[in-house]
Amino acid sequence: MDYTTLRFGISENIAEIVIDRPKALNALNSTVFKELNSVLDQIEANSEIRAVIVTGEGKAFVAGADIAQMSDMETDEAKIFAQTGHDTFNRISHLKMPVIAAINGFALGGGCELAMACDIRIANNYAKFGQPEVNLGLIPGYCGTQRLSRLIGLSNAMHLLVTADMIDANDAYRLGLVQKVCDAEELMNEARKMASKIASKGKLSVEKVKEVTLKGFYMNFDDASDLEVNEFANLFGKPESKEGMTAFLEKRKPEW
Length: 256
What we know:
The protein has 256 residues and is of the alpha/beta class. The chain is built from eleven helices and ten strands. It has a six-stranded mixed β-sheet with strand order 1-2-3-5-7-10, sandwiched between helices. The chain has a four-stranded mixed β-sheet with strand order 4-6-8-9. Helix 5 packs across helix 6.
């Protein structure tokens, strides 16, 4: 399928999504969401994909939602637009395989929210992060108020949300918003290297560890512990775990 706002490809079991509206700093509009959901349909239907990378074209990851589209919205339209963003980003978060955000520049507003919907974030040294919605008389609309506080703590999130301050990649790393900072020319190499490392592990175990970690985060500790015990035990009946442990004992690489 041909897309007008993004590029999508799969290589060696790794999917790459590039938001491709550089003249608009990759701002999110209805077409981007429609095309993102089409790509997510393909990813969900492809059992061979083991990791996903999301990045942006040009000097921005995603600079936010498209204010040109938003400016004339009434309440009902705005609710649909926000719900579409929530639903799309939740689909990304709930993909079975890990999703890596390769943040190549501005990740503001909806762009920061897109990055936070991914499991792991790598940023180049030019990346900037922020939730500037209060500058527009708005609040984040794509789960920024919820994901940011869960990732960096309530007080740190509140500071960024109410001041609309923009932070650089090093501050984002210090706060735990990103897991790695690298030179701009190395960003995609680092993202692909990490994706390849993930792809080299047991597919089912990677999917299960993501599932249990995310589910458990929103459960009480005892229930989350029970979930881990059950899923740990369930893997012992699978060929993947037998191959992994046999390979370890035989001092060879597993053949997944």
